[in-house]
């Protein structure tokens, strides 16, 4: 009997190891990358007082694309930047690429990544094929000497790859550019628990002490996962979406400045929030919003330790043997649309009037959102809504 029990126990633990083993690499990478995601968001958020939207996975894939063609210190810096350097294994050339590819596919994300190189520099086919395969990234030549034409090519590419959801990534193109890296992504919350537009009403949103705006405020009652973090004095609500993705919406207490949350968020803090969530009956009010944000990553990346690619010592020999290739700019444009609509799996249970009336959580002041893939906890987007009437 005893033997049998222990055998069972061992079998059970072997089983759990092998089940964990399948996802471990992707989960480990997601954990390591989460710090890049939160640091990039903090950096971008700290440079403005307005709405923010960052595709952290898009930025990761863009830098990974470059890393695939970089060598020496330039490559190490890129891998370190996105947090995966310690996962590189000797003799396993394609390890990081494989894991990132799996992550991209698991999270069902289709950000557009384009590397636009000046006309007279030909990228190696092996590089172009590799980044297409792993990151769905595209490498194209453009004629930077003709600014209008170059701008047109880049913007056409992004419109095509995002189904017109993202436009006008670049405004002007420097004719001296050697290579521009473009990242574009869009998120449309396809809620598993959609809001009913019948209950959406104009309501007040307190941008700050002096500025109150009217916004279309959505309303829904139901069971939600909710938590409160007393350290940051922030309420955390989870809104599940299609494809195993969820949005955490963070509402700092009225006496808390949202910049405090912006600055203090880390991968660990984020995972702590997810772990704390508990199911509860709730009535929530969330404004509709639609963000279109441009992020000049060339401005933020150097302070996150990614500098070499922009300098004269950039080693991009894997992209082209042509001397002195370096990156001129990294631009990201992100669209986030949040309204009542639900995904195809929508359950039509939205019963507004529950008995007894549940507590109400109202997002009527600046809030932060984190979109992530639930199984791996990979962070996909982080943003901030300061004024929902603006883009
Ligand atoms: C650039 O990277 C390649 C590949 O890692 C390496 O062989 C080469 O020595 C590097 N060049 C310089 C100048 O560091
Ligand atoms: C929205 O609510 C109204 C009023 O209760 C109801 O008649 C309608 O069927 C609901 N729509 C959906 C899509 O659930």
Automatic annotation (TrEMBL):
Keywords: Signal. It comes from the Eukaryota. Pfam families: Serpin. Residues 38-388 form the Serpin domain. One of its GO terms (molecular function) is serine-type endopeptidase inhibitor activity. GO terms for biological process: blood coagulation. InterPro entries: PZI_serpin_dom, Serpin_CS, Serpin_dom, Serpin_fam, Serpin_sf, Serpin_sf_1, Serpin_sf_2. One of its GO terms (cellular component) is extracellular space. The keyword Isomerase does not apply. Residues 1-21 form the signal peptide. PANTHER family: PROTEIN Z-DEPENDENT PROTEASE INHIBITOR (PTHR11461:SF191), SERINE PROTEASE INHIBITOR, SERPIN (PTHR11461). Belongs to the serpin family. This is Serpin peptidase inhibitor, clade A (Alpha-1 antiproteinase, antitrypsin), member 10a precursor. It comes from Danio rerio (Zebrafish). The gene is serpina10a.
């Amino acid at each position: 009997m005893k033997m049998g029990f222990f055998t069972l126990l061992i079998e059970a633990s072997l089983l759990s190891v092998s089940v964990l083993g399948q996802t471990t690499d992707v989960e480990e990478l997601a954990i390591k990358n989460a710090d890049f995601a939160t640091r990039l968001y903090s950096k971008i958020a700290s440079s403005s007082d307005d709405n923010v939207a960052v595709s952290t996975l898009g930025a990761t894939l863009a830098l990974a694309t470059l890393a695939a063609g970089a060598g020496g210190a330039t490559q190490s810096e890129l891998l370190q930047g996105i947090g995966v350097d310690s996962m590189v294994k000797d003799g396993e050339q394609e390890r990081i690429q494989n894991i990132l590819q799996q992550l991209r596919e698991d999270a069902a994300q289709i950000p557009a990544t384009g590397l636009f190189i000046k006309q007279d520099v030909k990228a190696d086919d092996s590089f172009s094929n590799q980044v297409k395969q792993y990151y769905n990234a595209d490498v194209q030549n453009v004629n930077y000497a003709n600014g209008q034409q170059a701008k047109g090519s880049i913007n056409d590419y992004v419109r095509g790859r995002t189904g017109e959801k993202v436009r006008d990534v670049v405004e002007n193109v420097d004719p001296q550019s050697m290579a521009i890296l473009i990242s574009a992504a869009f998120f449309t919350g396809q809620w598993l628990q959609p809001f009913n537009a019948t209950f959406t009403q104009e309501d007040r949103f307190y941008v700050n002490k002096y500025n109150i705006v009217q916004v279309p405020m959505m309303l829904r009652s139901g069971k939600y996962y909710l938590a409160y973090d007393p350290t940051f004095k922030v309420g955390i609500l989870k809104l599940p979406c299609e494809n195993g993705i969820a949005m955490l919406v963070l509402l700092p207490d009225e006496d808390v400045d949202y910049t405090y949350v912006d600055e203090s968020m880390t991968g660990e803090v984020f995972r702590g929030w997810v772990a704390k969530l508990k199911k509860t009956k709730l009535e929530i009010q969330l404004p509709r919003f639609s963000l279109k944000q441009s992020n000049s990553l060339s401005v933020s990346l150097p302070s996150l330790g990614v500098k070499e690619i922009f300098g004269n010592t950039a080693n991009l020999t894997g992209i082209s043997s042509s001397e002195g290739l370096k990156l001129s700019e990294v631009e990201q444009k992100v669209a986030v649309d949040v309204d009542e609509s639900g995904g195809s799996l929508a359950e039509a249970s939205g019963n507004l009037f529950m008995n007894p009336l549940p507590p109400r959580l109202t997002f009527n002041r600046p809030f932060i959102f984190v979109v992530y893939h639930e199984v791996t906890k990979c962070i996909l987007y982080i943003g901030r809504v300061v004024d929902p009437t603006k883009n």
